[in-house]
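Work Package 3 (structural annotation) set out to generate three-dimensional models for the target panel prioritized at the project kickoff. During this period the team completed the workflow that converts sequence records into discrete structure tokens, so that structures can be stored uniformly alongside our sequence database. As a representative example, we reproduce one entry of 320 residues exactly as it appears in the project archive.
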Amino acid sequence: GAYFLSPERVHSPEGVTIHEFGHGYFYGLVGSNEFENAWMDEGFTSFLDSAVTHEAYGPPLYSRRFFGVPVTFKEVPIPIESGGIDSHRNTSDMDILQRFAWEYMDGESYGANVYSKAELLLRTLQRVMGEDVFGNMIKTYSQRWWFRHPRPQDFYDAVNEFADRDMSPFLDQVIYGSGQLDYGIGQAESRRPPAGHGLYEGRFLKGRTAPGADDLFETEVVVRRFGEVIIPVEVLFQFEDGLDLRESWDGEYRWRKFLFTHAAKLKRVIVDPDFKLVLDVDRTNNSRILKPDRLSALKWTTRWLVWLQHALEMLTVFGG
């Protein structure tokens, strides 16, 4: 866990120390089979050490090494939800989560599954079930299987005992499947009702909107399931006059269209606004702002241009 010139706030030695201590619970007290059900060992411990590390030290900072020298970006803290999502996204099609340790394609796939994907699954369950309910579930599961040897079905049973719905279909997809979870915005727009021809309250309208329609906007939003994993999802619609609407979707079909007629335009739409689905591999498509705010892009573009200028100036030193 410790490296030469280990930077502060990266939590490299601290996280590993906490992780190894966590193995005293998984697989120590709870005797998970680290060879046949490795995710029930490493995944549970990774979930535990991330929670403890963030609570004790705060979120780690993003850090990269250039020519062996670590560079830490103090403006880029890594949220707990992001831990392992990159490796899961890049390797999810290699293996399923539940495999014997020696059957994974390679070490990268093993690590991405039994550490990252399993931790992301547990964090998703924590937010879907609610932190208190999830905590009681984990406590019951752990005490029930102290000094015993639980299998995946035993974990299923504990989850379903506390969840408000049968979570087995979702668990099957994540544990015994290699599909990705990805919900996002397909399209979103607000517009005036189109002019039309026809009768309205006994009058013939030609090329005009119906009386009163000029004060309304028609909003159309298409939410899509880009991935293979299916789970119910919430969608938040925020309008320019301050109105917030929440809608639920079972997420089963490939898309769903939402239609609203309201006195104000849509300002923003967010899929999974409470960030319950931590397993979602692409958060960039989860929201859409109809009038983009370019301030953040300008801020980071300016910073990276400064870094680029410094790098080019360094090259001139070596180039003569």
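The chain has two domains: 12-175, 183-294.
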